[in-house]
Design brief:
This protein has 6 helices and 20 strands. By secondary structure, it is an alpha+beta fold. It folds into 2 domains: 150 residues, Nuclear Transport Factor 2, Chain: A (Roll); 159 residues, no CATH class. Strands 1, 2, 3, 4, 5, 6, 7 and 8 form an 8-stranded mixed sheet that branches. Strands 13, 14, 15, 16 and 17 form a 5-stranded antiparallel sheet that branches.
Length: 319
């Protein structure tokens, strides 16, 4: 077994030899236990190399050609880049601080997607969390990495605005990135269709523990600024769900190194608000400082019609 975490409640504790694979039952039929163990071992070896552990085995990590943080490189080039980076940055440190989510790609069944949160930095003092994304494929020599990147890099490289990762001063002082992960709350693994699923909202700041959003699939994550004079940006989260056009929208910021839900969740309906952005849903109320105008969906019984209305909500502040 590996060195990774075994439950959402333990996400931020680095435990020596605890490992849980996040794989759905439906996927496990096409990924036999031997393959799952081999993928676990591959991720361990990858972590060994970048953590500079003794007896690391870099030669068994990659396919001959790799998509590596936006570049198409040979395996030899990737290994050379990694070794040069580690030689230059001798205090670099890395650890894996979440469960692994392992599932086959919907687009290519030969590809298996492995996602997790890593914590890394040039020194221990400047470590940050990253949403790591690795794609692996089985070859004659076993499972190998065919693509490696992280969600922050993808967001920064994209020509379009990312809806997977948001950036802002959510504590009013320090810029950080935020994103969502999803998992079956019973297993910590991948969510089965039409079954229980929760999300965790993560910050790149390792001092901020993730917060759980129940009945949630990964959806849009947006930054909105200027709702009050606190200087804090807010992250607006619009989770998906298996069915229904109704969605609950949540608004968070960071206070005292904690995620704070700054108002009750409110309803959005995709039938009439499918393209609504955070700025469409939330506006500051100049007449009532500390309050926000919220556009929410509701069913008008008299008109027998789905409509929107604007209500005022007070922004909560942690004492």
């Amino acid at each position: 077994m590996g060195r990774f975490l075994t439950g959402v409640s333990l996400l931020l504790l680095i435990i020596g030899n605890a490992f849980t694979v996040a794989a759905a039952e439906g996927e496990s039929e096409t990924l036999p236990p031997a393959d799952l163990q081999a993928i676990e071992s591959l991720v361990e070896r990858w972590d060994d190399v970048l953590s500079k552990r003794d007896n690391a085995q870099p030669q068994s990590l990659y396919m001959p050609q790799v998509e590596w943080y936006g570049q198409s490189l040979s395996a030899q080039q990737v290994l050379a880049n990694e070794q040069a980076f580690l030689a230059k940055n001798t205090d670099f440190c890395q650890s894996i601080v979440s469960t692994l989510n392992i599932q086959r790609s919907y687009e290519d069944k030969n590809i298996v997607l492995v996602s997790f949160v890593k914590r890394a930095g040039l020194t221990y003092e400047n470590e940050q969390n990253y949403p790591q994304e690795i794609q692996v494929m089985k070859s004659a020599l076993g499972w190998r990495i065919v693509s490696e990147t992280d969600g922050i890099t993808l967001a920064n490289q994209s020509k379009e605005k990312s809806t997977d990762v948001a950036r802002g001063k959510f504590d009013g002082k320090n810029k950080s990135y935020v994103w969502m992960r999803e998992a079956d709350p019973r297993t910590g693994g991948a969510c089965l269709p039409y079954s229980k699923c929760d999300c965790s909202l993560w910050s790149s700041d390792p001092r901020v523990s993730p917060i759980i959003i129940t009945q949630c699939l990964i959806g849009n994550v947006e930054t909105i600024s200027g709702l009050d004079n606190s200087g804090r940006d807010r992250v607006v989260v619009s989770p998906e769900w298996w069915s229904s056009a109704e969605r609950v929208v949540y608004v968070f910021d960071i206070q005292q190194y904690q995620w704070i839900r700054v108002m009750p969740g409110f309803m959005k309906n995709l039938n009439i608000q499918e393209t609504a952005t955070a700025a469409d849903l939330l506006q500051p109320d100049p007449q009532h400082p500390g309050q926000v105008k919220v556009t929410t969906a509701y069913w008008d019984l008299e008109k027998d019609e789905l409509l929107t209305k604007v209500i005022n909500k007070k922004l909560w502040v942690l004492d």
